[in-house]
Design brief:
heterodimer; A: 486 residues; alpha/beta; Rossmann fold; 2 domains; globular
Amino acid sequence: MNISLKNISFSYSDSLDDAILKNLNLEIRSGECVVLAGESGCGKTTISKLINGLIPHYHSGTMDGDVLLGDKNTADMTLAEISRVVGSVFQNPRSQFFNIDTDCELAFGCENLGMDPEEIKRRMANVVQEFHLEHLLGRSIFNLSGGEKQKIACASVSATGPEIFVLDEPSANLDLKTIADLKEIVSRWKKAGKTVVIVEHRLYYLRDVADRICYVKDGQIAYEWTPAELEAKGAEYAASLGLRCMNLDQLGDEDMMCHSRLDRESPSSTESITFTNLTFCYHRKHPILDIDRLELPCGQITALVGHNGAGKSTLAQVLCGLQGNWHQKRAARKRGAYLIMQDVNHQLFTESVLDEVLLGMKQQDEKLALEILEGLNLKQYADNHPMALSGGQKQRVAIGSGISSGCDVVVFDEPTSGLDYRQMLAVSATLKKLAASGKTLLVITHDPEFILNSCQSVVRMEYGKVVEQYPLLGNQEKLIEAMLNV
Amino acid sequence: MIFTAPLVYSLLMVVVASILLLFEGKWKFVCTFFFVYLSAGFFFGQVKNLDIGTSGTIILASLFLMYRIMPACAVLYYVITTTKVNEFLACMSRMHISNKVTIPLIVMIRFFPTVFDESRAIGNAMRMRGIRLFSLRTLKNPVSFLEYRLVPLLVSITKIGDELSIAAVTRGLSTDTKRTCVAKIGFRWADAVVWAYCIAVVLFYVIPGLTGNLPSL
């Protein structure tokens, strides 16, 4: 089924003066796979919402122009009718499930369409086989990893058999191996003649699948390339548009890394911090985390890699005293380790940015707090409410509160997930500055571009154990290979 | 008599929830529940006739609220941990209850576990900052403790609520189509037993209690 967006203007407010899309035209042919790329806030997610009918039926705003699915205008259809032809997968695996167990979730869409129960069972059996979900049946969604959730989301949408699939940053929370599975799923849909629209920052995995990459800027389609064309223009061209790389193999090149090479060659110190007794289990027979000893180089950024469910987050929580037994928690308090969570909204409590930094201090010292904010480029926001800031600013406020509580070790849980190239560089700059000031950083990440840009050493985990630890310089290819094959 | 009469009668109803929860293997929850519930009821019975002043009245009121509300919470816990979304929807439509009533209810049921999940994450973040319930700081300023806990929770649950509704509507959940259901549901003898018990309790204790003719022990 082809999609056509004709002269679309849209604004989330009452007038089109501050429109996010301005007179946009886009034709997507039946069976085509189109990627919508662009910097955060450029309007690419809005386009996806126009296609799946959330605009105009769910989000309010001012709209001009027509969206046609086949020959039907979405404005004349109800959301339930649109959901028969368009299946949507979203970015946040946490909140896109309406059921609390996997079986029901797979059946949910079909049940809503009023299909015959026998037919639903047949379709469920089909998708389970197609997506290899046998081991995920009958599980509570609260016990699934991000990658597993995303697979279930794709499968349950697939079960209703829509003609069009719309995916909004589906890879944001996934490791490289799960992204490869996602690519499989997309190419299967394409083979079946479905039309696929993907909003995405990470482009490399869609290289062989996508027919077109549309670059959205200032509310319009500014450029269109085939993946080969974009790749031929080189990594620097993509970076200048704020796009992530097209080819992971190019990443290991020394050229790509030269801008950050200097500080890598001269590690600020040879000292290291030693952590012992990092173990954790829910059941005695199945330890989730089993590390006797972990050494992190002081004043450096260490990347913590490993597949979804390898125990990385558990390690971070035990290090910071959020999990584990009484001894581990006391040790964590003594050593002072601070966790910057993936969802920083969880750790901002107060009414102003300044209060947020003061809160963690043993002796409240406003001058010192302002100095910390200055270092994070947040001084002008000192009186703002933390919730009113942008995502990157919130993250920096959380970092500020960590610094003020006097922690020497700062652990980050996927600080760059779902960020475009420019935002990723900004996070990287903040982290480098933090490391230069003498803090020891451990960063859980699935983002090879970020690692090559900022980290000095790598720790790789598997099944709750550290399997490898090495300095990054000279081992770039090894790292990427390990991340792809985990 | 250690326990007051109303406590014993409310126990008759608590028993239903407990047995159902035990069938689900939630013995830990049931034990904790009974311990807190019976203590609250017991202390309420002990304190209520004493002359205890303002602060005592506050304690009395919270004890009263606790032991009156806890049974309802236990039932709610049973409902949200064991009811599957599709079974609930199917059962409601079988009872000819409008989707306009059912869908908001199901969103609520779906919402609770997520709220607990979020709340746990926020609690973790607070502990990392050294903000604890039992600490000098909280004792000095208990309101700020609540604020630290509630502000991020409210922000995140509004967002999640929105995303959940989007997930539901893009999957075709709507008020005007008739759903089907894969799961087999029906009214069986176990349901009949629970029903009969509840009706008996209402007839013999709740209605007389409301009209002031509560049978004495």
